[in-house]
Input
Amino acid sequence: MTQITKRNANKFLKDEYDELVKNHFEWNIRILESGSQPHSIVNGKEVIMMCSNNYLNLSNHPRLIKGAIDAAKKYGAGSGSVRAIAGTLQIHTEVEKRLAKFKRTESSLIYQTGFAANSGLIPQLVGEGDIVISDELNHGSIIDGVRLTRADRAIYKHRDMSDLERVLKDADKKYRRILIISDGVFSMDGDIAPMDKIVKLANEFGAMTYADDAHGEGVIGEDGRGIGAHFHIEGKIDVEMGTFSKAFGVVGGLIAGSQDLVNFAYNKSRTWLLSGSHPPAVSGAQLAAIDVLETEPEHVKRLWDNTKYFKKELNSLGFNTGNSETPITPVIVGDSGKAKELSNKLYDEGVFALPIVFPMVARDKARIRTMMNAGLTKKDLDFALDKFEKLGKQLSII
Amino acid sequence: MSVTIGFVVNPIAGMGGRVGLKGTDDVLDKAVKLGAHPIARQKAEEMLREFSKFSSNHAEIVWVTCDGDMGNNELETVGIKNKQIVYSPSGTTTSANDTKNACKKFIESPPDLLVFCGGDGTARDIFTIIDKKIPLLGVPSGVKMHSGVFGITTNATAKMLWEFINKRLTIGDAEIMDVDEELYRKGEWKVRLYGIAKGIVEPTYIQVGKSCFESVSDDEVKDELADHVKDELEKHQDWLFLFGTGGTIDYIAKKLNIEHTLLGIDAVYQKKLLAKDVNEEQILQLLKKYPNVKILLSPIGAQGFILGRGNLQLSPTVINKIGIENIIVVSAPSKLIHTPVLRVDTGDKRLDHRFANQGYLLVIIGYRLSRVVKLQTNSF
Output
């Protein structure tokens, strides 16, 4: 009889966690004892929230809360199944119709999360003999989606259209399908992909375009309709992917595009086919979020007013805020250790904003990433600016 | 953070440059007569001064060095006290032998890193003794710095040293290049690959969580490149592959169980070695028999050369016959951080011009993963 290896099946769990802790790579999860609000209670301390994605403060909007409650009352707490079998409620399809109208596309499809949209759809759009061309600063969920395919991958320099064109020219002869993927708004720098130019180049080469607009949805474009509206190319981006979890204030991934895309996507995306559908309360809140965006333009306006004020004041204090064009405003500090120190001190002073350090960004570009919220008042912003000034001087950043 | 840094200066390095001698190997007397002044000492001190700006605390950094202008004087001038002298040169004028003898002393109790001031000749002398036993970092202070162990400038070298001490850079392969100075003075390039030393490299990072990254070793990246090349070989069964020179290609070949010549060109057909260490003539013979050929190259040395340095067998005639579209360039992404430009110098202006017109190459940086890299010809 052959000898059986006596393994310790679970030892690696502790070993690997300990290793993370040793290198200070583990997540110290902070607990919010309030909702995600402009003034939140984080680990028992009241702070000004500058690192949530709740840009428009819709997660606290009475109409969204009511939408959730009403839907729960009407349809119950859960949906009972995956969408494909018996889990498609009328309210799910209603969200999709309203969303397509809002996005000015032919059709739309809701996924369980944004990650599920990327990792479910991308591997179906390309396979062996195809190539995915990707901006070098694209989000991790795109990279994971691409990893699930047998397609080749090429990276182009961040927002560099001549670099993209070079890859396209090379790829043109070699591949069956070409898929260009880019974040709409880049989450680390807050800059915007030149999607109009990407679409133009893609059309020249017969390439498909895919924009991950997670940080643009509800933020850029008329009434926050996203990257398509921002460049007035609604319906021209083959796949506009986004999320309800950020500016929309709820949760859930989405794609908007042609009916052909949607038919293809729901029949082929394994994440969509194999996960339970959204609870009715989620759909109710999603529906209300679209309502609010269509009827209450003041939220998007306030977000941008706050952003402009905050950015201008940071700059006049002498902070470097990089190339941001959106409510993501990086405060570039340089050294990673200093960025962490500034973040900790800001928290002690009542401002919650997280550091982004190497290798997420270049070694000399470590930063505090601030994310604006429409619910913050001028008084709140002045309070935050005051702390930035005080600590910036203390740490010799300004 | 206790670290031991070996430090050796070749005091005569770089003396030939200013007086137009293109190197000091074997012609020191002539250089001196032409009025050459030592520059290595000045470069060494520049680097040390820059380094001192990062490191206010010298206590945990121990410098192991040589007497006189071979290191001790430079450290002394900049005010670095925490040092030990392990070698004293025999005469007043130092020579290549002094560098080598110093290295023999370093090996007896190896420091974490050996920092040296000199050019390719110095790098070669050091490598002859040290081999891969101690990682090297060169302060560029010679006439020619083609080897991959050099920092780009003295300031960049100081920064690299500081990053290494703080464990933000790791050890990887770096090529030692050898220029025939006699021919070089006559205006002829003959740069060959002399060997693969250990140098300092930027690690490649992969994202393992939302904001959690792991640094990937040089070997892991090369494993991915090997997987990619394996696919290429399988996809193109009726193609002949010419495997180029250098550590990256050598690693890939070994991974594919192909016996490879580190410093030469090998012909591979259907995943088997067909001909070893072929010269230009032998390659041209092979091209008659195999009409479809791909060349596998990796940038060599500090300046990112893919052709014209260390692989002269791949002559303009060979390249023209194979076609520049059949060149596959592979590189660890970390290498491209410090060498963002690839260079060719084929010796044939028209061929160089064709590369220049193309302007860019798609470089394989991982399994089925590529990126565009700028291509330059004939310029440093």
The mean pLDDT of chain B is 86.
